[in-house]
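> Could you send the Immunoglobulin superfamily DCC subclass member 3 prediction when you get a chance?

Sure thing. Input:
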Amino acid sequence: DFGRSSELAFVVEPSDDIAVQEQPLILYCQVEGIQPITITWRKNGVMIVDSENAFMLANGSLYVSRFQRVRGDGSSDEGEYDCMAQNHYGLVVSRKAKIQAATMSDFHIHPQNAVVEEGGVARFQCQIHGLPEPVILWHKNSMPVNTDNERYTLLPKGVLQITGLRAEDSGIFHCVATNIANVKFSREARLTVSGSHSTVYKDPMILVGPENLTLTVHQTAVLECIATGNPRPIVSWSRLDGRPIGVEGIQVLGTGNLMISDLTVQHSGIYVCAANKPGTRVRRTAQGSLVVQAPAEFVQHPQSISRPVGTTAIFTCVAQGEPPPQITWLRNGEILETSDHIKLKNNNSTLSIYGINQADEAIYQCLAENSAGSTQASARLTVLWADGLPSPPQGVRAETVSATTIQVSWEKPLQNTKEIIGYVLHIRKAADPVEMEYQEAVSKSTFQQLVTDLEPSTSYSFYIKAYTSRGASKASEVTVVSTLGEVPAMPSLFIKVINSTTVQATWEPSIKLGQHEGFKLYYRKVHLSQYTGPVLLASNVTAYNITHLADASVVYEVKLLAYNQHGDGNSTVRFVSLRETVERTVLNPPCDCMKDEQNNKTSTTGIIIGIHIGVTCIIFCILFLMFGYRGRLLMCKNVQEQLSTPQIPRSQRSTTGLVLNGATRRDRDDRDLNGKQLDMNELERLFPASPSQEQQEKGILSAHSSSAPHDETQISTLPLDEFSIIEEQPDPLPNNTHGSSPAASAPDHGPANEG
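Output:
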């Protein structure tokens, strides 16, 4: 912070300290700046007057000759001290230094007797409060414990751990607490090591886990974790959030205690101690939280600035710490009060002073403070004022022109008007903060300005400044005036015919309507001059049904408008006719719902039956066409073979041709009995009989009894998997010289094709 302000700044500030009873105490304070500088001290906000017990040294430090926690009159030298420095530029206050008396209480936890088997773990603890924190040492049999023994672990909080116990560890233990205030001894405790090392399996168990700690950066944290079990468990550490613990500044004390040196805020978190059985996943855990606080420190200091009268001065002060610090502003050592022209924003990080004047010239300080400490920084505001500047403009008036326009007029200043280069009109809604103000520049020869684009029914404040090349005049008097009210805008309107006697008017709410109290609805027959209405509707209503419109032969006019305290707005008009609705009603009379319902049920049943019949017919037609086409194909093939084969007696023709032709057409000549018998035998061979004899006879009769020229349906009734065609090659000899039967005259080679 050195050299941040040449006007006045601290070089050394008092710091927190712990004082010893009846011993002297010195609090240091050193300031630099433009002389003369006066230094004073305060305790708990009250000025300290020099006395025999406390007085200020020549270098500005405070000397307390005999510090006392409690004096005879009940007062105490403990408290918060700060140093104040002042010169003709202003006053600054140092950070607060917290002074406490060194103390030591009695032990509130003493070590306890313990009996532990050989190879086990022993733990003794003693606890005492004091300022500063007492240093605790352990004695065994009235001698300091040998800290070189790796089996002995001494923790800062007064804990002694002994692992891998042996018979020689038995003895009497006590602790000794020491600080600048006193030295105290705890009660004694006896440790007895019994028996030999046990080989019985024991699950891992955590005797003592980490406790919750709150410390400050750069301190050292020790998280205790001591575990037992057989075999001896392995102790490991992790963070609950999964982040790595790291290695820098990390050390393991004894068999599992975690020590973190030079703490930072990043070390804050929940730490988990795990006792793991070697070679298995059996484990026990315990956890504790570590909170690391950081004193407030500045990221950005406020800077001294110079600004002309009437302008805006802004100071920025950004601080960090853990917990986040609170920021307070001082003006010449006093708490800064906000007003219309002094504003604090961004959690007090930004100080804005609007329309500054000479009274605002001072030293402004930013104090950042949290539970871990405090700090301060200062900056000076210099207000520039030039001699010979114009006096404020006179006679400022504002007149309302319309709902969105105001005319402001003024007169030139009374003094120093020759150097004026223009005027600036400052405009702001009366209800808005100062930082919402905006300006309009006006030439030096103009003494009025029409301000437009304002909001209806709103109050505005105006003031004027005259500007020269060397600066601005002081502000004129402020005048406040309101714009006129404005009637609402036209609403959107939609008409929907509900039935032959009713229409519905609907509209949409919109901010474009402006401020309105409600709606007025009118309607009439277009040929009449008189409206029905108004129907008054609330501002939240968006629909209305117009009923009892009995005359369908005419056109109706519907009109809607919004209104407020300033009057009625423009209306929206729509026209509607009910004739089409009436005609549709005549053409489509109302239905008998019960009758229609019964008809619907009957119709539904008929439709379902019709669908089934139609699907069945389609299936049969497809089958009919398939088998009919196949039969005709076979017939055509047989006729072709007969035409290409030499004519032989009927009795010697191929059986294939006999069967196929017998199934499709009949020879008009009479056949002899032998020929008929042969035909029946061939049919039996080509079409095996079914298991029932009766069915066989019926099949044969159906093949011969019908005389229809095209009996394709009978062929199609034969099962496809039993249907086969045997095509035989004709005998190459034209005559049968042996006169054998047709069966014997067939060639002895097998069929050429079998399908």
